[in-house]
Design brief:
With 208 residues, the chain is an alpha/beta fold. The protein has four helices and 15 strands. Strand 7 and strand 8 form a beta hairpin. The chain starts with a strand and ends with a strand. A six-stranded mixed β-sheet has the order 7-8-11-12-14-13. Strands 6-3-2-1-15 form a five-stranded mixed β-sheet, covered by helices on one side. The chain has a two-stranded antiparallel ribbon with strand order 4-5. The chain has a single domain, classed as Purple Acid Phosphatase, chain A, domain 2. Helix 3 runs parallel beside helix 4. The longest helix has 22 residues.
Length: 208
């Protein structure tokens, strides 16, 4: 049994109170789907002493001011953007940051650019298949896939390449944020093809 803590978009007071306590002692690793302050992610890493894999959201700052220094990434965390990695327990992860392009801000991409980034993952996914007899365990993004847990307004539209990735490579989970629960009529979890697509806005504990 593997247990992971997934976080995204909203700082949780429950996390601040409970992380490092008995509720999170048995997690194996952490995933962040974006739009969280670096200090928050650093706090989770320091209190759990577990690996944290992250992608940036469309509201991520290029530089975040801290008490003692500026930083451009959360210290002690692992950037998953455009990478295929394995946890210490052998779980395979792939990630892509950002959202659809809507006002030319940072970490925003056109549908075509998202296709290019997904295609760059393909060689590593085939290496996974030769090694593990499956392509991918968990796909991590900030934005949701096209017409799954997404919304009609342009900033929150899903990514077409992500939907294709789920159809072809069939990860067990796709974890994302970006679309807040109170706006997301589709709910937190949608099963699509062979994948559970989970909006982890706030936090979710996932066991598999």
């Amino acid at each position: 049994m593997t247990k992971l803590l997934a976080v995204s978009d909203i700082e949780s007071q429950y996390i601040y109170r409970a992380v490092g306590g008995k509720n999170f002692k048995d997690i194996d690793f952490i995933v962040s789907c974006g739009d969280l302050p670096y200090y928050y992610l650093e706090y989770i890493v320091s209190m759990t002493n577990k690996d944290l894999y992250y992608v940036r959201g469309n509201h991520a700052h290029k530089v975040e001011m801290g008490d003692k220094q500026q930083r451009t990434a959360p210290q002690g965390a692992i950037d998953l953007h455009q990478k295929v990695l394995h946890t210490q327990g052998g779980i395979s992860l792939a990630g892509i940051e950002g959202s659809i392009l809507y006002n030319y801000g940072p970490h925003q991409y056109s549908q075509g650019q998202m296709w290019q980034m997904v295609f760059k993952l393909i060689p590593s996914l085939f290496i996974n298949y030769m090694r593990d007899n499956h392509f991918l365990d968990i796909f991590v993004s900030h934005a949701p896939p096209w017409q799954i847990n997404d919304q009609e307004d342009l900033p929150h539209q899903g990514i077409k390449a992500f939907r294709w990735l789920l159809e072809v490579f069939q990860p067990k989970y796709h974890l994302h944020g970006h679309t807040l629960d109170y706006l997301n009529r589709g709910g937190v979890l949608t099963h699509f093809a062979q994948t559970d697509v989970i909006n982890v806005t706030g936090y979710q504990i996932i066991e598999f």
